[in-house]
Amino acid sequence: MQGKKSILFITTLSSFLTPFMGSAINIALPAIGRELNMNTIMLGWVATSYLLAASVFLLPFGRLADRNGRKRLFIFGITLFGVASLLTALAENSTLLITARLLNGVGGAMIYATALAILTSAYPKSERGRVLGINVASVYLGLSLGPTVGGYLTQMLGWQSIFYLTFLLSLIVIPIGLYQLPKDEKINTATSFDMNGSLIYGLSIAAFIYGFPLIPGISGILIVSSGMAGLYLFTLIEEKAADPLLNIHLFRENTVFVYSNLAAFINYSATFAVVFLLSLYLQQVSKYSPSKAGLILIAQPVIMTLLSPLAGKLSDKIEPRIVASAGMIITVIGLASLSFLNQDSSILFIVVVLMMLGLGFALFSSPNTNAVMSSVKPAEFGIASATLGTMRLTGQTMSMGITLLILALVIGKDGHHASDADNLLSGIKLTFTVFAILCIAGTWFSLKRGKIRS
Prior knowledge:
Elements: H1 4-36, H2 40-68, H3 70-90, H4 94-122, H5 125-157, H6 160-180, H7 195-211, H8 218-240, H9 248-253, H10 255-271, H11 274-285, H12 290-297, H13 299-314, H14 320-338, H15 347-374, H16 381-411, H17 421-448
Helix pairs in contact: 1-2, 1-4, 1-5, 1-6, 1-11, 2-3, 2-4, 2-7, 2-16, 3-4, 3-6, 4-16, 5-12, 5-13, 5-15, 7-8, 10-14, 10-15, 10-16, 10-17, 11-12, 11-17, 13-15, 14-15, 14-17, 16-17
């Protein structure tokens, strides 16, 4: 039966799938590195390649979904995501693995570009915080189960089993989506698709993301500079385009929309690599098994899963700016605490800090999403969803880029010094310090955004 509840179910199920795979693979990285002979820097690209592809294609797919129908692209995205997961499991070397992860990212971009817009369109403003909270909770449930399930699968059946499981989950989602999501309505496509803007945007984002970890080398600086120049050219093109890929005027006229997106970008830039860093710390510094490391890391997303619906519902009654900013402040405290890690840090200390971060993430994410989606007109839901998704993915990519840059500076670009626990620990602590400082700036943007209710 079609209806709001079935839409909530299918979008929630799809929102679970991608973070589950992402968090599970973080636990499997050391095993992947040993089997495919990949150093620490290359392992970082296993995660970053997915994010890079998703970031490049998210805005174009969001625009295509608005023009040609969201259901169609949603189903195709889940299908591609599942096939790419199977190819990842079958990869026999690092090149094939990262190529499959790039395809994973393309499929993920299709899901990101459509799921949130489909859900937001189905519910009135008075219920939006609650259902968006449930959707965010499903993301965190995927993050919760990923480390535990991924750790046991890696230990018992090998890292490939994570991607076989993701492939099977995709097969379950596809028929449910085909039968439960409402049919696409006819959309006016009289105007042409902004191909020039899409091409320049994609190349610019790819250059920026690829070049950032290469800094402070000359090549990295040149590539990042070209990416930034390309993004500036993109804004000039969009201002003159008849049917732009991204409505630049929305950024100039809507303060809540702008600052909420900036807060999201900074929050993800400062937090996404936490699991990656702690996975390395627990397994390579503290010498825990993948399954035990997974059990420890589950503390953070469990709190996020439990509290996100409550935080989203709270933002229906209290200004999202207040709730989200409180979450950012708690996140700053948690990240700063992790900068004091040492080889003798207790599991209790790590779990308590992870729970603190989980609380901070929950208080920020659902209300911030509510603020973004409630700050625009229904006709702009697709743009808002794609923009927020782009902030999330580019922020996540930036988080990995900052991490890879710092680790390369501390342990060497070839990653061979990663076996030295002292060097690796120094890089991890420095990264958490940088993230804490970055999150302070995010708190300012979160407070600055203004109200969504008059």
